[in-house]
């Protein structure tokens, strides 16, 4: 789809009605030889190149297309009107800086994080929390204030055994955003914590407390913790084995397998990979 088009009576229906269903149309009303119009035109054209898939820069020459200008009720130049789904949304009249125009557009253009969130939700609907995590983490890096992004990230974290990170993120959710998903995630956290208090884990913890240097007990406990989605605790325990004895049993393979199983973008993945590699090399 073209990022810039001149509107005439012939293509008016196509651009304003049809194309605006898929993209935001930035309609620029201008006139030849009018200085403010000539100054604004290259600014709008430059901005349009930054949004090739979501913005159309449509130009109306008010001298050759007076009917279109009249239909929009244009009273002065330059004037810019934003159109979406065939309806005027917003706009401005008179000179504007590039920053002001971009700020206006950002109110109506789809955000990158929205696309990432939509893809992540689709993956979650198929039970793929690992791939979803990577996308939601990217969305969170773009906007770490949005509650919907934080909740979806926390949900992924719980499913992937990152309970400490999930609990920290949940603590930042305001009362107004504590919806059904919020309560569901809290329930998942409680269940995960209960799983970490299984008789097998408690017994191993008690044995290890009595024999803290027993690497075999540590390895068994690390396996149990990982199975109970206590990933960070399992990694920390496995790393403590490698620090004592790099070649103890299956500790090296177990640790690397746990790290590799973490989703891309997970801070734990890079953190523990660095720690293990510092021991190996």
From TrEMBL:
GO terms for cellular component: cytoplasm. One of its GO terms (molecular function) is protein-disulfide reductase activity. It holds the Pfam family TPR_19. It comes from the Bacteria. GO terms for biological process: response to stress. InterPro entries: Thioredoxin-like_sf, Thioredoxin_domain, TPR-like_helical_dom_sf. Residues 1-110 form the Thioredoxin domain. This is Co-chaperone YbbN. It comes from Paraglaciecola hydrolytica. The lineage of its organism: Bacteria, Pseudomonadati, Pseudomonadota, Gammaproteobacteria, Alteromonadales.
